[in-house]
Amino acid sequence: MPTVKIRDLFQKNKPLFSFEFFPPKTEAGMANLERTIRELADLAPAYVSVTYGAGGSTREKTLGLVSRIQDELGLVAMAHFTCVGAGRTELAATLDRLAAAKIENIIALRGDPPVGAERFEPSPDGFSHAAELVGFIRDRFGDTLSIAGACYPEGHVECRDPKRDLTHLVAKVRSGTDFLITQLFFDNRHYFDFVDRARAAGITVPIVPGIMPIGNVAQIERFTRMCGATIPAPLFSELDRCRNDPAAVAALGAAHATAQVVDLLRGGAPGVHFYTLNQSPATRVILTAIKAAHLA
User: Fold this and answer.
1) Which is the most buried residue in 85, 152, 246, 252, by most CB within 10 A?
2) What is the mean pLDDT of the chain?
3) Pairing state between β 16-21 and 47-50
């Protein structure tokens, strides 16, 4: 299929809906993911992304999966690309493989430390921050790649000072980031306040909200602890009340995410990136409701 740079899609001035997947560790998990991708493909996402594991542990699976999604399904695919566990030579080699596979969309991230590590440690001849990685990619490939970056409406878990975190984000954008995708959040005020602060700091690129429909209470508690996001007290109270009823949790999670997405789009968000956790039902429910409301 002809390659499409995601940054160009934002020029159409209509909301872009996209999905994030992760490489499964088992054959059963891969079969489930393939089924999920097929079920979501007919919703015509603008693009899909595929993550690295912690510490870059699924790098090869990520490259293979992105290539398959793009070549076999004809979807625009974006590869996660981190600097964990790799120096400049290895990073350059991986980028060359992406280019050879005609993958022209990446999201450049510092990445999480490997499992068991207390803090991030750059590799020898590697990078400590995503801004450095973005600059390295731009120096090597110029404008031939579309580069996304991450941002954190409630602050990065390792940097709870909003002003300092925003300074880092400005540097990342100036290094060559084309658009941003936020960490998950459950109160839209965090997103809208963050966008206001980013615009005031001179950031003009699209800022796409990342939404994760809640399907399991223990799981979302773990995720929010890891990433520093918060769950509004009224929502958590309802989740806690029905935490042992999976169907009720899934219904509440989908309803809350749908309300978030409606409000975000009406407030001017350029689209929504869904953290699917390799599942399709909640995302299908939400997008069906959005289309019924003529917001997509």
Assistant:
1) 152
2) 90
3) parallel
Rg of the chain over all Cα atoms, to the nearest angstrom: 18
Sign of CA dihedral 222, 109, 27, 66: positive
Contact (Cβ atoms closer than 8 angstroms) between residue 296 and residue 15: yes
Find all residues with CB under 8 Å of 170, minimum gap 6, and list them. 201, 202, 203
- CA torsion sign for 152, 153, 154, 155 is positive
How many CB atoms neighbour CB 162 within 10 A?
Answer: 16
Give me the catalytic one of 20, 104, 132, 154. Answer: 20
Task: Tell me how far CA of residue 273 lies from CA of 48, 181, 238, 242, 269, in angstroms.
Answer: 9, 7, 25, 27, 11
Choice between 88 and 242, residue whose per-residue pLDDT is larger: 242
Largest CA distance in the chain: 52
Q: Is 171 exposed, middle or buried (0-12, 13-18, 19+ CB in 10 A)?
A: middle
pLDDT in tens, 173-225: 999 999 999 999 999 999 999 999 999 999 999 999 999 999 999 999 999 99
What structural domains and CATH numbers belong to the chain? 6-215+252-292 (3.20.20.220)
